[in-house]
Structure formats: structure tokens, C-alpha cells
Amino acid sequence: DDLRLLDGASVRALEPELDAAGGLFSPSTGIVDSHGLMQALLADAERHGAVLALASPVRGGLADRDGIVLEVGGSAPTRLRARCVINAAGLDAPRLGHALAGPAALRAPQACYARGVYFSLVGRAPFSHLIYPIPEPGGLGVHLTLDLGGQARFGPDVEWIERPDYGVDPARAERFYTAIRHWWPGLEDGRLQPAYAGVRPKIVGPSVVDADFRIDGPAAHGVLGWVVSARRMHAWRAHHRPQRRSPRETLAAAPTYVGQSPMALLNNSSVIAVPSAKPPISTLSLTSPFRLSL
Asked: Is the confidence at residue 211, as pLDDT, over 60?
């Protein structure tokens, strides 16, 4: 409720290098350390009995009267039976949906992929705020973000592709210069360098209005305990890989959950087994307007 509509003069008072006829100012927008946040959430979940098994891709599954049996691959393949399974696998959510034997596979959405690349700015940026231009079809437009270290990055753009591909073509910098100079005309040549790419796992193509969220439960597909969460969610390429352990090695740390779990949360390459009768997982709140310290 603290949004403020600014005219051009007020925009330039905040950011002198910015060329805009007006803007919408959000004083309480913040940035977080995403890796630190995920680690904190995982630690919070594990304190409440959850078990994370990395490098444990789900190959398929079958629903029966006693629950849902998942075929888990990896270095030590195993089976996991759960009363409730949530498919929240991002890029792989549609594939996992089709891999579950039964009527639920018929309801699984079709996967569509929209790649977005980022370019970082060489040298210090003249901005102290996050800057978002008018959104474009399929994305938010080439905007400016600042990380916790003050490094400026621009992106992402939108490029529809057939399959996930995280390559960054340096030639796309020309498109970035053009887009950025609409609101920062002072951007000099040679100041952009390739950073990284991400793929948006969408469930509709470029000619369809965005469908950001879709949650299918038993009422939609008829399988008790199977929940599919499909959303337009960034799946950025990781800069490092966590320690890999087989599902059997990981789940062995909590033997009462081996082979059976009240709930399983599926990611694209891991399984989180969650026990029942535990207090709700606590949440982290943003305590500072501009950063979250963990």
C-alpha cells in the first residue's frame, strides 16, 4: 500500500540517468540471497522431519488404493510409497505428470519453454533502485536488477525454444543495448557482457495469454493424493551443485521413512519425503526494505 505514482521530474530526482515520462515507485521492494534463503528453508523443513534425497529422479509412478508408488532412479534405485504426492518439478512437471500411470497422465499440461538471458554491466551502475520497464509479451521486459554485492544485471529477454538450453549468445547484446537505451540513453557501447540464462517452464505458448498458476487435484484427474502444481517459474542454471547422495543413502538417515512417506514433494531431480503429525514449517519474513539477512 506504499506504491507512489511519479511524474518524469520525480523519476529523475531519484535516478538522474533514467529517461522516463513517469513511473510507479515501490519503496518496500526488496532483494534476497536466493541460495541462502533456500538453504534456510531446507534447514527449517529438516528440523520438522523432512528428508531431501538429491540426484533421485522420479522415473514414473502408479496410483493404487493404498497410495501412490514412485519409481525413483539414481545410483541406488528404490520405490517410495506416499499418501500424497505434489508434483512441483518446474521444467519437468509435465514430463512427470505424463509418467504417472493412470488417468492423471491425460490431464498433464504440455510443456512450453521460454528462455531468458541476462547481461551484466561492466563497471559501476549509476542506479540505486531496481528498474522495470513496461512488460513485454511472455516476460517482464529487459529490466535492471542489483544483487547483494551491488552488481548490475539486465534481463531477461524472451526467446521461445523447443527444449531447455542455457546457452547465452553474445550477439544478443545488440538487442539489449537497444532495449536498455529506451530508458537509459547514456549506456555506452562495450559495457554489457554475457551473464547467464534461465528457462521459464510455461504451460502455454507464445500465442496464448499467460497462465501463471495451475493446480490440479483429485477433482481434476481422479487420483487421490496426487497434486500437480504447474506455474511459470524461473529455473535458472545453478552455479554450483550440492553434494550428491543416492535416495537410499539419504533416506537411510531416517529409517522410518524408507519406502513409505505420508507426503512426497517432487523436484526435477530430487525427492523430499515429509512426515505427518509435525508442527507447520515456519516462514521467514522480510525484516529490511532492501535485503534479507540469514
From this structure: yes
Query: Does residue 198 contact residue 205 with C-beta atoms inside 8 Å?
Result: no
Helix (H, G, I), strand (E, B) or coil at 107: helix
Q: Which residues, in sequence order, are CB contacts of 271 under 8 Å at separation 6+? A: 52, 53, 56, 58, 70, 72, 80, 247, 264, 265
Distance of CA 114 to CAs 137, 150, 160, Å? 11, 27, 4
| Residue 185, amino acid | P
DSSP 8-state symbol, 281: P
Pairwise CA distance, residues 245 & 266, whole Å: 16
**Which residue, 96, 90, 136, is CA-closest to 231?**
90
- Under 8 Å CB-to-CB from 274, ≥6 apart: which residues? 45, 49, 50, 51, 261, 262, 263, 264, 265
Of 210, 209, 220, 215, the C-alpha closest to 107 is 220
Residue 261, C-beta contacts closer than 8 angstroms, at least 6 positions apart: 80, 81, 82, 273, 274, 275
Q: Which of 20-24, 98-102, 266-270 has the lowest mean pLDDT?
A: 266-270
Task: Specify the amino acid at residue 1.
Answer: D
Distance separating alpha carbons of residues 129 and 139, to the nearest angstrom = 20
Q: State phi, psi for 49 to the nearest 5 degrees.
A: 100, 0
Which of the two residues, 99 and 283, has the higher pLDDT score? Answer: 99
